[in-house]
């Protein structure tokens, strides 16, 4: 577009401009502390980059960031550029500026030696990125398990007595289903911090043929322990005898009494059903929660097992898009993606 220009800068030195443009174009404002956590808190192989769109007047009117997150691809560590904080002033949306801007960004990424770049965009950005070489990999899926469906039944069935009867039958059905899941050898604990045991777990985890974010103790501490916004993360661990064989990280949505699981991972898939069963039993004894929600990629390795446990998959509107530079030595296509809500650090 005539008179518009695009450029790349580091984050350091442009922090306040990033914050201003980001908050101007988002319904939820964030703080400088939050942005510093996102851009500088995790040790990275390369510093974050900021892409700018500048109007003929010289003002910055668009901005997107590229942060190099540590991922593992087929048992090999890689730095994945993750696109985020996509911002474009409202008066320039629908003018074609976004197409030119993302074409510029795609060319910058193509020049780098990385297996792929990753983004989880909103619908408007998804369409533009699709025109600029970004391919939709998978949808995000919400796996939902009802614990106490009385409120949902009440909205559908009247009078209240009928909804209470239906809810009772559902809880009986759920209890019977859980009894069929083995796992007596597993124990559940709720802890406050990630310790060295998580490094042992991560080293022992089989990563062959998978594409997943680094989950070392250092990365987990950054993602959840040092998170600066108003969200409290809880950690549930699963042990077989004295060995950590799985863990999950969750938050409690007090408004809806929903448990939202950001991470769930086990050393072997066979431990997952018993671990989830133990966690459900814990929730039923320690609160009046209505449901559990887990967000994963569509073809996540755990998707089928979650469905067998009783989770109902609901395909969301958001999708995972990737930009793959021409690096044939990287075995991206043979790997299964292992993405959760924890991959979206906003």
Notes on the protein architecture:
With 346 residues, the chain is an alpha+beta fold. It has two domains: 5-133, 3-Layer(aba) Sandwich (Aminopeptidase); 141-321 and 328-343, Gcn5-related N-acetyltransferase (GNAT) (Aminopeptidase). It has helices at 15-24, 32-40, 97-110, 123-131, 150-156, 160-179, 196-204, 217-225, 272-285, 303-309; strands at 5-10, 49-54, 60-73, 76-88, 117-119, 135-146, 186-191, 210-213, 234-240, 243-253, 258-266, 291-297, 312-323, 336-338. The strands form two sheets. It has an eight-stranded mixed sheet, sandwiched between helices. It is globular. The two termini are 31 Å apart.
Quaternary status: single chain
SS-based structural class? alpha+beta
As for the number of domains, it is: 2
Question: Order of strands in the sheet with the most strands?
Answer: 5-13-6-12-11-10-9-7
> Which architecture of the largest domain does the CATH hierarchy give at level 2?
3-Layer(aba) Sandwich
- Given as residue ranges, the uncertain stretches (5+ residues, pLDDT < 50) are none
Which percent range describes the beta-strand content?
25-35%
What percent of the residues sit in helical stretches (DSSP H or I)? Answer: 25-40%
Biggest β-sheet, characterized? 8 strands, mixed
Distance between the termini: 31 Å
Kindly provide the radius of gyration, computed on alpha-carbon positions and rounded to a whole number of angstroms.
22 Å
CATH fold-level label of the largest domain: Aminopeptidase
Sum up the overall morphology in one term.
globular
